[in-house]
Write a structure and sequence with these properties.
heterodimer; A: 178 residues; 4 helices; elongated; B: 182 residues; mainly beta; 2 helices; 51% strand
């Protein structure tokens, strides 16, 4: 299995990043929902610490995936797919990248505005990107929540599109990622 | 002659008293969250300083802090800090420091030994401090001090918080006081 993409399938690198992100993003939704509903306790803070460190990781991964995408060829879309459909898929994928970057970025803003340190797995400290400010914190929290909903809906759309290719169109779009 | 000797102490000049200029003073602390520092301060406090660097042993320092005035630039965290497990500001609205003795280290460095009472617990601590006249402002003096305490000594962060997985036991107290003679 080649690391790099070929015209026929995604390479191992792209697959690893794709499925790694998929699982981690699901975990982040779960962690986020649990942690905000817990009463204040050391466990709650511990979950926040994990959520933040993983979020920064996902930000790095999303940027790396973009670089990986731009530096390699992409598998060709099915020949019988309309130009509009190809263009829509392209827009949809960039939309997902934008959300995968905006999501952790807004979390980073919340953490900075809330005057919390951001420790990346005890390895290095991520510096704040905005000064402490309760108004910025509240705004960023709302944006983070809205982005979470938009990302959830977009991922559902992504999954439905993959299933549409596999089950209805019966092409190899989904299989190229497996 | 003997009488004169006995009277000598009272013939010292009176201990100079100082008042603080609040805008340029800060009673702050650095605490540790997930092993990384974050800063906070108390906005409401009173300080009594009677001090002459020539006669440090006769100096006196007192401080009364309103624990509810804690500000870590995070409203939720500040509210949590006022609760029972932390400062318990309802029952212990004030923290106090009272000097017992002051010693000189060198020209501008001193050490004050005194009683710190926080959340009803009193501990004797040492606080090294610097006493530096402000160059451009006549008569003004800047007092800077810092020391490290362990929050467990004062029962701060009790119950399930008596653990340093998320919030460290060490707290650095960082004080800057801008003083002028009264």
């Amino acid at each position: 299995m080649p690391w790099r993409n070929s015209a026929r399938a995604w390479g191992t690198g792209a697959k690893f990043f794709h499925w790694g992100s998929a699982i981690t993003i699901m975990l982040m939704f779960l962690l986020g929902i649990i942690m905000i509903n817990l009463p204040l306790s050391p466990l709650k803070l511990e979950l926040f610490i994990w959520h933040k460190a993983i979020g920064i990781t996902l930000l790095g991964v999303a940027l790396m995936r973009l670089v990986w995408r731009w530096s390699s060829s992409l598998p060709a879309p099915p020949r019988d797919l309309s130009k509009t459909a190809v263009r829509l898929a392209r827009i949809g994928h960039y939309w997902l990248y934008a959300l995968m970057i905006a999501m952790p970025f807004s979390g980073w803003v919340i953490n900075s505005a809330a005057n919390f340190p951001l420790n990346w797995f005890d390895i290095f400290e991520v510096p704040p990107i905005v000064a402490p400010n309760p108004d910025v914190e509240n705004l960023a929290k709302q944006i983070h929540l809205i982005l979470a909903i938009v990302l959830g809906v977009s991922i559902a759309g992504h999954i439905l599109a993959a299933l549409y290719h596999h089950k209805i169109r019966r092409d190899d779009v989904l299989q190229k990622m497996l | 002659m003997l009488t004169l000797l006995f009277y000598c102490p009272s013939s010292y000049p009176a201990n100079p008293r100082w008042q603080i200029s609040s805008e340029q003073s800060r009673l702050g602390f650095t605490a540790y969250y997930d092993g990384r520092p974050f800063e906070g301060e108390f906005h409401s406090y009173q300080v009594e300083v009677e001090f002459d660097p020539q006669y440090p042993d006769r100096g006196e320092l007192k401080c009364i802090i309103e624990t509810a005035s804690v500000d870590t630039k995070n409203r939720e965290r500040d509210e949590a800090l006022r609760l029972q497990e932390w400062f318990n500001s309802t029952h212990f609205p004030q923290a106090t420091f009272r000097s017992l003795s002051i010693r000189k280290h060198d020209e501008s460095s001193f050490n004050v030994n005194g009683e710190l009472t926080l959340k009803g617990q009193t501990r004797i601590i040492d606080i090294p401090f610097q006493w530096n006249p402000v160059k451009q402002q006549a008569e003004r003096v800047q007092l800077t001090a810092s020391t490290r305490i362990d929050r467990r000594d004062f029962n701060i962060g009790s119950g399930e918080w008596n653990d340093d997985e998320t919030i460290g036991f060490e707290v650095d107290i960082v004080i800057t006081l801008m003083l002028k003679p009264t």
